[in-house]
């Protein structure tokens, strides 16, 4: 698929929890990490989303927060993937930060330049990519 | 309304599906396209959202993904509007892509420069603007 | 916590409404404003989210819309915080707008340069920071 979403993870559906309007889908990545997606119940039905199915999970880079120190906090975002910063590309206002996960996948986050300075983001640093389940779009082969 | 959301579509509510906490609202645009919004049940009540009502649907440009080739994939995002790219405005890290829909509406998407190169985005190209129902804010005249 | 989310509000949980998959959490800020967060039911359980608990609410700047004139419209976004613009930082494509709330908190929004011109955004102006409940991540001390 040719899509502008910087993050496109291949995985397998591990669990589907259906609500009245929305559903929560757990996707296992090849490296062992899990991505949680919140999609509508109608999409689950339309795409025949079910355990064992191969999917891709799309996440736009501006939806991803970079955390370098939780300072004793636990957070509600369902996706918290720790890795190592492999690239920091500066722009005029925003910067793209790339984080490599242990399992081989890579996540891109767009953050403001101020955040890069405040957090002292640099290549080689350990960081956690954080994004909500609602930021994830799922794709299946038709 | 004067708001910074680049996308402000005028439409009419065609359907409202209520869940325990959230609701799904279908908005028909003048050109025949439909936009699906996921808002809280409380907002449906506060704004008296109901079939037939005129609304505006607001979507921020960074929430929109541009897809040029689905490569056999179907995706969970409820909003997938195909059109023609009318403008590609480059910045240092990000680019704004404008897509004209057949019905006359226009959608702006903010994507990274890397995506513009990878997808070969250019004026005149056919592309699909993709965004989740959760990215849509509805406005009604009070 | 060291996180790239530009907006990190300290507050106290005032109300928790649980649905089948998602939950809505109301957080009172020290200045009297309320922030509404939509998180999954599982996060409510995992973080022991309950009335009276201290939390931080994280919101990324690209998720925030700036409204200067509602023009008679009421909108579905659960978070609408009015304040005064204290800074407008221009980039090549995007601009960061800072809005000070009456209670002392500050909100950063990333908007396009076109919006800055269209809305005539400037320091000292009254503006409302608008964001959906789904854009909010909650953090609790563990």
UniProtKB/TrEMBL annotation, chains A, B, C:
This is Molybdate transport system regulatory protein. InterPro entries: Mo/tungstate-bd_C_term_dom, Molybdate_resp_trans_reg, Mop_domain, Transp-assoc_OB_typ1. SUPFAM superfamilies: MOP-like (SSF50331). The lineage of its organism: Bacteria, Pseudomonadati, Pseudomonadota, Gammaproteobacteria, Methylococcales. PANTHER family: DNA-BINDING TRANSCRIPTIONAL DUAL REGULATOR MODE, TRANSCRIPTIONAL REGULATOR MODE. Keywords: Molybdenum. Residues 2-68, 74-140 form the Mop domain. The keyword Heme does not apply. It comes from Methylomonas methanica. NCBIfam families: Mop (TIGR00638). The keyword Endoplasmic reticulum does not apply.
């Amino acid at each position: 698929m040719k899509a502008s979403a910087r993050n496109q993870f291949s995985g397998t559906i591990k669990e589907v929890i259906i609500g009245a309007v929305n559903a929560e889908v757990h996707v296992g990545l090849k490296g062992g990490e899990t991505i949680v997606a919140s999609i509508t119940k109608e999409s689950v039905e339309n795409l025949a989303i079910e355990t064992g199915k191969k999917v891709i999970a799309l996440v736009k880079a501006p939806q991803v927060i970079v955390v370098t120190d939780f300072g004793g906090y636990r957070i509600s975002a369902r996706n918290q993937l720790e890795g190592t910063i492999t690239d920091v590309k500066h722009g005029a206002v925003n910067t793209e930060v790339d984080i490599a996960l242990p399992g081989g996948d890579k996540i891109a986050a767009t953050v403001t330049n101020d955040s890069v300075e405040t957090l002292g983001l640099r290549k080689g640093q350990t960081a956690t990519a954080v994004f909500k389940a609602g930021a994830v779009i799922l794709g299946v082969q038709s």
